[in-house]
Design a protein that fits this description.
Blueprint lengths: L1 H11 L1 H18 L6 E5 L6 E2 L2 E2 L3 H6 L12 E4 L7 H12 L8 E2 L9 H4 L4 E4 L4 H8 L4 E3 H5 L21 H8 L5 E4 L6 H13 L14 E3 L5 E2 L7 E2 L1 H15 L7 E2 L5 H13 L23 E6 L2 H11 L3 E6 L17 E3 L2 H11 L4
Parallel strand pairs: 1-4, 1-13, 4-5, 6-7, 6-8, 8-9, 9-12, 13-14, 14-15
Antiparallel strand pairs: 2-3, 10-11
């Protein structure tokens, strides 16, 4: 009754009606919280997980970035040099491991920038190297004629002279597919994830790269070679760091340069390249519509002018995570955890972070208090 009378009186008085509608508009705006002016990028290995197990209170930390309804409260991404599987599959795995809902667009792998090369190599024969499902990754990106190193090597009889001594076997190609693959020139080689059989992969890559993409033929111009990252080491389950993709690259480069007159040419992606952090900023902005409760308000282009005052990079590797954030500059703020590659008591001397904490949970608590979200 009182509310009806208020409206009735407002209808009789234009001035009161204007003030009342203004008040209602103000109340409505208060019910629609402003979008956060910050975002977070998490490294995975050594920060969120060790192997397949959560560490550092990561499930509790990440749960704070969601509303009780399960909708996203803070824009965040997983920014990792790892990979080997499609982002959609990694998002599903992370969701199960951490007990949250991770969307594929929140996962940025070291090989994610390979998507930008689809137009160049869409229908060309390319070889995908590494653990996991490298060919599936490239196919999902849009490459139409991609073959894994396992399938490629099995298309050539005796290309791996040590194959007979290996106690594992790779499913071979049919005779028709072997002929088709072995007769085509490889236009590019992509190291999608850490290679498993270094000996075979270095041998076959040298064959591909020295002959212009057609092993067993004359020396020719080297086709392009792309690495998803250039990590020398990373934190896995074993207590000390394990050799990463850069170690494989160094081995390949050293051998290639000894047997070929011209030095190896290659392109590396992944952290700490500044463009990786610039791309992460774009992805974080693209996540903003997910924070809007009323989907009608999530109109295309609405958030183009939204700016982040601070972007937090939480990582365990000073040379990769912290160095990358520092090179990217503002608005990046680097946080170094002690759960992975870095285990020091003080800040890292060569690549000091803006903040050093013990765990990712401590890092997220700091961010939310600083941003007055808690």
């Amino acid at each position: 009754m009182r509310f009806t009378k208020l409206i009735s009186n407002a209808a009789c008085s234009p001035n009161r009606r204007t003030k009342l509608l203004s008040s209602f508009s103000h109340l409505h705006s208060l019910s629609q919280p402003e979008l956060p002016c910050f975002g977070i990028a998490f490294d995975i290995d050594g920060v969120i997980l060790r192997g397949h197990s959560p560490i550092g209170g990561s499930p509790q930390a990440l749960s704070q970035l969601y509303h009780h309804s399960g909708s996203l409260k803070v824009p965040y991404v997983f920014l990792t040099n790892g990979g080997g599987v499609p982002e959609s599959k990694r998002a599903s795995e992370l969701s199960k491991q951490l007990g949250i809902s991770v969307r594929p667009q929140q996962v940025i792998h070291g090989h994610s920038p390979f998507k930008q090369l689809v137009k160049r190599y869409e229908k060309e024969l390319v070889v995908a190297v590494g653990k996991g499902e490298p060919a599936d990754v490239m196919t999902e990106y849009g490459f139409k004629n991609v073959v894994s190193m396992d399938d490629y090597a099995s298309s050539f009889d005796s290309i791996d002279p040590l194959a007979q001594y290996k106690n594992w076997r790779v499913d071979g190609q049919t005779s028709s597919s072997k002929t088709s693959i072995s007769s085509q020139r490889v236009k590019a080689a992509f190291i999608v994830s850490d290679p498993i059989d270094w000996g075979r992969d270095i041998q076959v890559l040298c064959d591909i790269l020295r002959t212009g993409g057609l092993p067993g033929t004359e020396i020719a111009h080297q086709p392009p070679l792309y690495f998803a990252n250039d990590d020398i080491d990373y934190q896995a389950v074993f207590p000390s760091e394990r050799l990463g993709m850069a170690a494989f690259r160094i081995a390949l480069e050293s051998i290639y340069n000894r047997i070929h007159p011209k030095p190896l040419e290659y392109t590396s992606f992944g952290k700490p390249k500044p463009f990786v952090f610039q791309n992460a900023q774009i992805v974080l902005k693209d996540l903003l519509p997910l924070l809007v409760h009323n989907l009608k308000d999530a109109k295309p282009g609405k958030y183009d002018h939204h700016s982040f005052k601070t972007l937090y990079m939480i990582g365990d590797n000073p040379a990769i995570d912290i160095n990358g954030a520092r090179q990217a500059g503002k608005p990046w703020f680097s946080i170094l955890t002690r759960t992975g590659v870095f285990k020091g008591k003080e800040n890292h001397a060569e690549h000091p972070a803006d903040l050093v904490v013990d765990t990712v949970e401590e890092a997220v608590d700091f961010i939310l208090k600083k941003e007055r979200i808690l």
